[in-house]
Design goal:
- The protein is of the alpha+beta class.
- It has 3 domains: 168 residues; 147 residues; 74 residues, no CATH class.
- 42% of the residues lie in helices and 22% in strands.
- The protein contains 10 helices and 13 strands.
- Strands 1, 2, 3, 4, 5, 6, 7, 8, 9, 10, 11, 12 and 13 form a 13-stranded mixed sheet that branches.
- Strand 10 and strand 11 form a beta hairpin.
- The chain is globular and about 65 Å long.
């Protein structure tokens, strides 16, 4: 069969075009599949992280419940347990683990929620916390802590790429009867099998930075400054002379700021008042040469350099060779936790790589320090008999809204077999109400209040 040269060229061109189209479709399909796979991995990893955080909250709140000294505090903690248990169940249901038959895990989360709700209802009617209730809370806390630890291990392995969610259900269904699927199961299996001493429950059915929720006190009746003046303040605070600004990155909301950057360095200065709002430097710190105490000294020197006086160091925490120190304002020996400043120090060379003054800008003001209505001994009567008081002081703490509370801070230790857990209990200095309980986690990396 004779084919003209022009026809032959057309056929070849058509075939090449067809091959290209098929290739593009295949690449797009592969890319789409890869995108879906990455999205699945991301969604599952996020659910594991949220589940871990909910379990962490449950464990902490249960422990606080053991040392609650009033029905009001127990009611608050019970409501929080109910909410966190519901969140944990929702995140667990989002994971592809239906074939694992996690009856005990679901039972635990359901009973935490139901039992805490029952406690809340009973205590709202004026009942006292019984020894039996405390024993149940201790046991629940132990189980919550164990499951929480397992889930953080799972999350770490996911972050390191050692666990994948791909083909999860197939791996589970294809596993032999005596074979454990190589997946997220290890985070639950031990917990599922460890219910030998689970209690029979009978029932009827860090201070936070609560900032940016109100008008900043330090910006009231202050004038707006120019970008040029703000730049000078940013340069002085960071030591970086080549900062630049883009209007798109400026902060809005309750604390409008000029935001200046250079590389990994960011500095924000309030447009009204010209106050240093925050700085950050995301450089990696690979060595740890300074101690926590030396980092505190560096942070105190920096606050003095900024002209922020009358601040008292409270706690610090070390993470990835960076020490973050919390400071609170102090007036007439009264600690004001609402006026919070955080300073981050690199432990390789002592450089200041982070500052957060938003809590201080929002809350700092002139206060009329008043005499409390309750004597320290009267306030101490509100402390749980399961705690031993070792110290006290007056302070202001954030409320659960946007206000602050005048309290006695009692430093306590629990009476347990492990030598005692350090605990802070806050009793309202006027009403005697138990306002807050914080557990102190003390390690070589500092002190964390939860």
């Amino acid at each position: 069969m004779n084919i003209s040269k022009r026809c032959f060229v057309r056929i070849v061109s058509f075939m090449i075009a067809l091959i290209l189209v098929i290739g593009i479709i295949a690449v797009q399909g592969h890319s789409s599949a890869g995108t879906l796979k990455r999205q699945l991995q991301y969604d599952m990893a996020r659910s594991v992280q949220n589940l871990s955080e909910s379990l962490d909250n449950i464990s902490t709140t249960l422990t606080k419940g053991i040392y609650a000294g009033s029905p009001q505090m127990m009611s608050f903690l019970s409501a929080k347990l109910w909410s966190d248990a519901a969140s944990a169940k929702a995140e667990l249901s989002a994971l592809p683990v239906a074939s694992l038959h996690l009856e005990n895990t679901y039972k635990f989360l359901s009973q935490v929620g139901n039992y805490s709700k029952s406690l809340s209802e009973r205590y709202s009617e004026g009942e006292q916390i019984s020894d039996s209730d405390r024993e149940n809370l201790i046991t629940l806390s132990e189980y919550a802590k164990r499951l929480c630890e397992n889930m953080w291990i799972v999350q770490q392995k996911i972050n390191e790429g050692r666990l994948s969610f791909e083909n999860t259900e197939k791996n589970i269904s294809d596993a032999e009867d005596n074979e454990e699927p190589a997946y997220i199961t290890e985070g639950f299996t031990e917990f599922e099998e460890g219910y030998d001493n689970y209690p029979t429950l009978i029932y009827d059915g860090p201070f936070s930075d609560n900032i940016l929720k109100k008008e900043p006190e330090m910006l009231k009746n202050t004038a707006y400054i120019s970008e040029a003046d703000a730049l000078k303040k940013a340069q002085r605070a960071s030591g970086e002379k080549e900062l630049s600004r883009s209007e798109e990155t400026d902060e809005q909301g309750k604390l409008p700021c000029y935001v200046f950057t250079k590389g990994d360095t960011t500095v924000a200065v309030t447009k009204q008042g010209g106050l240093l709002c925050y700085t950050s430097d995301y450089r990696e710190v690979t060595e740890r040469r300074l101690t926590g105490e030396e980092a505190v000294e560096k942070a105190e020197e920096y606050l003095s350099y900024l002209g922020i006086d009358d601040m008292s160091y409270t706690y610090y925490e070390v993470s990835r060779n960076v020490c973050t120190i919390n400071f609170a304002a102090e007036e007439e020996d009264i600690l004001i936790y609402t006026d919070l400043v955080k300073v981050s120090v690199a432990l390789d060379n002592g450089e200041i790589i982070g500052f957060d003054g938003r809590g201080y800008i929002t809350n700092h003001k002139e206060r009329e320090i008043k005499t409390p209505k309750l004597a320290p001994s009267q306030a101490a009567e509100k402390i749980s008999p399961y705690l031993t008081v070792t110290g006290k002081r007056l302070c202001y703490i954030p409320s659960r809204g946007a206000d602050e509370l005048y309290c006695y801070e009692f430093r306590c230790y629990s009476k347990d077999e492990n030598g005692g857990t350090p605990i802070l209990v806050y009793i309202n200095a006027d009403s005697g109400k138990e306002e807050q309980i914080l557990l102190l986690e003390i390690s070589e990396n500092g002190t964390l209040a939860v």
